[in-house]
Amino acid sequence: MSDKGKARDFVYTDVEFRQYRRRRAERLLTTGTAFLVAYAVVWSIVALLRGDWLTLMVQGISLCGAAWVWWCLSRGHLGLASHSYFRVVIPVVTCLIALEGIAGPFRSMSHYHLLPLTLGAYLLFFERGNRARELYGGICLLVFVCVELGLPTLAPLGLPYTLEAQQSGRWILFFAGFAALIYVADLFLGDL
Fold first, then answer.
1. In Å, how far from its chain's centre is CA 25?
2. End-to-end CA distance of the chain, in Å?
3. What is the rounded CA–CA span in Å between residue 101 and residue 156?
4. I need a labelling partner for 38 at 20 to 30 A (CA). Which of 45, 116, 180, 192 fits?
5. Assign residue 162 a region: left if phi > 0, alpha if psi is -120 to 50, beta otherwise?
């Protein structure tokens, strides 16, 4: 008899723990989507000020992707929302890198968006499956390292930034990415 009571407690705790993990993943994804919207708004303002219509179009894709992820989350489709987020954000950041161009090592700025994405991929898919975590995190790290070290060179496909604007943007995005990393880590680990 006492074994059945323990089994019920274990099942109840297991279900409650799964619900807790789901809420934590939803909160993480909602925060990531809010960051996506914030970055899209800022990049859209920069694009409007520069008259860079290609970057503005890419940010329109970001906003549509954020709307799709929020719609999926509101319907309870956490898995679809999670995969959709990374399948929108990674190509958008890659497009921003291509629009900015890769002039050499330690000169680009758009790839700094990939650092919080790497951590986000690891944390979001932590309990779901290794394949998605390794795929999305690996792509983010691979693109980041290649761009940071200037392994490929690519002429800007959009309006080129001045060297001073790239250096300033690099520092701004570095600290914005670092703040996002700290916030996401605190959000995820704060209630453990």
1. 14
2. 33
3. 4
4. 192
5. beta
DSSP summary character for residue 105: T
**pTM above the 0.90 mark?**
no
Q: Which of 73, 57, 168, 74 shows the shortest CA–CA distance to 112?
A: 168
* 33, 37, 40, 41 alpha-carbon torsion, rounded to 10°: -170
- The total number of residues shown for the chain amounts to 192
CA–CA gap between residue 97 and residue 117 (Å, rounded):
15
Q: Answer for the pair 127, 173: CB distance below 8 angstroms, yes or no.
A: no
* DSSP assignments along 69-88, one per residue: HHHHHHTT-HHHHHHHHHHH
Q: Which two tokens stand for residue 24?
A: 């934590």
Phi, psi of 102 (to 5 degrees): -125, 105
Mapping DSSP to helix (H, G, I), strand (E, B) and coil, where does residue 177 land? helix
pLDDT digits (tens, 9 = 90+) for 112-157: 888 888 888 888 887 677 888 899 999 999 999 998 888 888 888 8
